[in-house]
């Protein structure tokens, strides 16, 4: 196969998805977003499986990857709806942290241009003292950064789905052309 084939393109798309997922995983860890951390981890495993299937000519692995991309698009649509507060979802809920903590997206306090100010709460002393954090001057609100991340993931996943389907069809077509024709029926003359 040449260098500009669907197979090479799918390898490139899987590598790009891995980089984007790893970047997203880092920021989800920084924000203690446990549901996205688990989803990203599963996504990384399936993309590696799809990459392996593409390199090793294993169409079944690529089919698993193609099915996963549909699930991944659905997850990212949910994330977009969550941060844009569509359909009764609230970005201030603890849904993405499994109600374990009150953390939000890392970008909510550390976005581009954001100035973070901490004010300690009076009367509470000790190692576990909490402080009130106010964030001002953000150039871009954190929910739009999360929406851009999810939109980019959807774009890559949709293109990956198309190429995965194409590569599976090419692989199975090549498999079928390599098969020997059936033997003629055995006619016993007795």
Automatic annotation (TrEMBL):
Keywords: Cell membrane, Membrane, Signal, Transmembrane, Transmembrane helix. Residues 1-21 form the signal peptide. GO terms for biological process: regulation of sodium ion transport. It is a multi-pass membrane protein. InterPro entries: Na/K-Atpase_Interacting (IPR008516). Its main location: membrane. It is found in: Cell membrane. It comes from the Eukaryota. GO terms for cellular component: plasma membrane. The chain crosses the membrane at residues 34-55, 62-86, 152-171. Belongs to the NKAIN family. This is Sodium/potassium-transporting ATPase subunit beta-1-interacting protein. It comes from Aythya fuligula (Tufted duck).
